[in-house]
UniProtKB/TrEMBL annotation:
It comes from the Bacteria. It holds the Pfam family Sel1. InterPro entries: Sel1-like (IPR006597), Sel1_AlgK (IPR050767), TPR-like_helical_dom_sf (IPR011990). This is Sel1 repeat family protein.
Length: 224
């Protein structure tokens, strides 16, 4: 997965209580599992999920491998953006997704019809993610799923978010697998199904996702 082309969500399970309230055991189980957390990865940065445990030398080597040329060089960055825009308009899903990230994080500047400069543009970001997601691009499906889940740039729609996560998860997108597991566990956007939740957590954990493994451990500790 291109780490520059993803909005990373370390989604762990947050248990929901029913209308009848929660028992003491239910509360203990809920307290043992942390709530979802977002991490937005900007151009020029290495996601913490990728750099954890690396030495500074290893981080520098990784940065050279994954960072685009021109970061820190304004003129080169402008030329890169123009080329990226051309590729995106030509239908390249990777470029479309990368543009979405740039507009979401504020790396790319946009303006309203009245000329007001926007620091970030989630609506434009969602539009580019949508174009790439339509082509089956897993990172874009995941990113657009996050936007639907959070109601950013698009109306909040957990059902749509779950569908997008599933599309990405079926292609092996590890964060989408973990998120989908979380949604099945809580019943958000899908019918609650603990068996399916565990299946997706296992798929993500098998790829080294620590949050998914933590979710599996929490479920096991609860005796389920």
């Amino acid at each position: 997965m291109n780490v520059l082309a993803a909005l990373f969500l370390a989604a762990t399970v947050a248990l929901l209580t029913g209308c009848g309230g929660e028992s003491k055991s239910d509360k203990s189980e809920a307290d043992s599992i942390s709530a979802p957390l977002n991490e937005i990865t900007k151009l020029g940065e290495i996601p913490s999920i990728m750099s954890e445990g690396l030495t500074e030398e290893e981080k520098a080597e990784l940065r050279d491998q994954i960072m685009p040329g021109g970061v820190g060089d304004v003129k080169a960055a402008e030329e890169k953006f123009k080329a990226l825009m051309a590729d995106a308009r030509a239908g390249d899903p990777a470029a479309q997704n990368s543009l979405g990230v740039m507009y979401y994080t504020g790396e790319a500047v946009s303006k309203t019809l009245s000329g007001q400069v926007l620091n970030t543009d989630p609506e434009l970001a969602a539009g580019w993610f949508f174009r790439a997601a339509e082509q089956g691009y897993a990172d874009a499906q995941f990113n657009l799923g996050l936007m639907y889940a959070n109601g950013e740039g698009v109306p909040q729609d957990l059902t749509q978010a779950a569908e997008l996560f599933k599309s990405a998860a079926e292609q092996g997108h590890v964060d989408a697998q973990n998120n989908l597991g979380a949604m099945y566990f809580t019943g958000e956007g899908v019918d609650r199904d603990e068996k399916k939740a565990v299946e997706w957590f296992k798929k993500a954990a098998a790829q080294g996702n620590e949050d998914a493994q933590a979710n599996l451990d929490a479920i096991k500790a609860s005796g389920k």
